[in-house]
Amino acid sequence: RYEVRVDAHELETALGLAARWHKLWVDSKTKDLRLVDVKDEFREVTKVQALEFITESVATRKKFLERGPGSSNISLVEGNQLLDDYITIVHGMNEKKKELLIAENMFNLDATPYPALSEIEAEMEKLTAIYAIYREFKDFEELQSITLWGDLNTDLLESGITELEKKCKKFKIGKDTPTFKAVEGAVGNFKESIPLIINLKNDAMKV
Fold it and tell me: Alpha-carbon distance 116 to 145, whole Å?
């Protein structure tokens, strides 16, 4: 009608599109039917992997509660290091959980819950906040320890530890845990030592 010239090969390709699409559809259905047994096999493998991950999560929670960063029988120094270790562990477990959820979705399986992992994450959230105060305290303590005696500013010393003490008082989550009480105790002990430092800095003590 519009006298548009079309290349013969392009015309042939266009007219054969429906046939090629039908062949692709048939091939995909055939492939899908051939994979039924394979899908069933992988579906069972995914179920087993989910059960194994539940067991792994429970074992990790047990270890976390007994010897983790929130355990009452370890020092704050140990707990501070363990916190970083468990951040890495929990990250790895969440990556594994994502892979399992993708597989379950692919094979039309119900998503498996992992309550033990959720419990660890909830405790880690509390401990991360608690150890943030501890790390701030240790940074403050180290800064004071490397300051020359003659340059030590007792006013800054008092204001710094008072600010940390306020943060402890305002703290909400995990306030009744042994870890928080240990951090609170460390801040309190440091504050109690300040009057002695002030007295030692007094010019009268130099005589």
Answer: 42
Instruction: Give how far Cα 57 sits from Cα of 25, 64, 150, 159, Å.
Output: 43, 10, 54, 44
Q: Is residue 167 classed exposed, middle or buried when 0-12, 13-18 and 19+ CB atoms within 10 A define those classes?
A: middle
CA atoms of 187 and 183, how far apart (whole Å): 6
Closest Cα to residue 82, out of 63, 97, 96?
63
Q: What is the pLDDT of residues 24-59, one digit of tens each?
A: 988 888 887 676 677 788 889 999 999 999 999 999
Contact 97, 112 (CB under 8 A): no
- Residue 138: exposure state from Cβ atoms within 10 A (0-12, 13-18, ≥19): middle
**Above 60 in pLDDT, residue 173?**
yes
| pTM for this predicted structure | 0.72
Which of 144, 189, 136 minimizes the C-alpha distance to 163? 136
Segment (H or E) for 187 = helix 178-201
Rounded to whole angstroms, the Cα distance separating 151 from 206 reads: 16
Q: Are 53 and 159 in contact (CB under 8 A)?
A: no
Between residues 31 and 93, the one the model is more confident about:
93
